[in-house]
Design a protein that fits this description.
Length: 291
């Protein structure tokens, strides 16, 4: 690249860099508060199990999701990026769903996921007791690939509450519950979920061991998918005959925090109920970088 080209590139880039610096340096986006640095973010039910803290971060997620043989078997890999931005001391913007799926399962084809975003507000903060409670809502835009079981209906609202506390030194509990409420109740089902996370921090090593459970209860069936197959967290198939069904999953995992502003995690998840739905097992990997 010539000197003139380099100068032109720098000139074009400078306004964007200046704008980004303005957002973070006392502008619209605030840094993550260090008051709850001993917490780690939950990993499973990744679209809906929201961390109760106000965070500014980018979270890269990889999922390898195995489908039971009764539904054709195969694996679905999802590559996604979540974004969160603390706007005030109590309010944050959250973008919780996006990504691209690669599949060799006959149930799902390759394609883009829907996009979901919203706001989260901190209701209680008690750094002395290491306790906090937040509530929020997101809207999932049906703009994904229909061949990937996305893009159906007129969108879906998620209304949730999430909280956490350090109940014993180096032991943390995080819980979240919410309702998934589709605009078109024929195209998608209504779901109530409750997710729980317990972790133990191993001194100053940066390592955590954790366990998680996720309960899904279908409040109302749809009429779009002819078989009584639920979609768990990533899909909402709008299936017939699923109202009243319950599925519980469990996961074990480990996280490493090389610094207060970074997390790297691995979790292995399986169904704990007789109903497996679309889940045989799932590996989740995430990498979080915070500001």
């Amino acid at each position: 690249m010539s000197f003139r080209s380099c100068c032109l590139f720098v000139c074009l880039l400078s306004p964007s860099v200046t704008y980004a610096q303005g957002l973070f340096d006392g502008g619209l986006i605030r840094p993550t508060s260090p008051q709850y640095n001993d917490f780690i973010s939950p990993m499973t039910n990744p679209v809906f199990f929201e961390d109760p803290r106000n965070l500014t971060e980018a979270r890269l997620i990889f999922l390898n999701h195995s489908v039971p043989n009764s539904l054709g078997g195969g694996d679905v890999q999802l590559y996604a990026l979540q974004l969160r931005a603390s706007l005030t001391e109590n309010l944050s913007f959250i973008a919780t769903k996006d990504g691209f799926a690669v599949s060799d399962s006959p149930l799902v084809d390759d394609g883009w996921a829907d996009v979901a975003a919203g706001l989260k507000y901190n209701l209680i903060q008690d750094p002395y007791s290491q306790m906090l409670l937040s509530a929020g809502a997101t809207y999932e835009m049906p703009i994904g690939s229909t061949r990937t079981r996305q893009g159906n209906g007129d969108g879906e609202f998620n209304i949730f509450a999430t909280g956490g506390l350090e109940f014993v030194e180096n032991w943390h509990y995080v819980t979240a519950s919410g309702f998934r409420l589709p605009v078109d109740t024929n195209a998608e089902s209504q779901v109530w979920y409750w997710s729980n996370h317990v972790d133990h921090k191993f001194g100053n090593t940066g390592f955590y061991l954790f366990g998680e459970t996720n309960w899904y209860h279908w409040l109302q069936s749809g009429s779009a998918f002819p078989a009584p197959v639920e979609g768990l967290d990533l899909f909402n198939l709008g299936s017939v005959g699923v109202a009243g069904n319950d599925i519980v999953t469990g996961a074990l995992g480990v996280k490493y925090k090389p610094t207060d502003n970074m997390e790297i995690g691995f979790a292995w998840e399986i169904p704990l109920t007789d109903r497996k739905d679309i889940l045989q097992d799932r590996l989740t990997v995430d990498w979080i970088i915070r500001y």
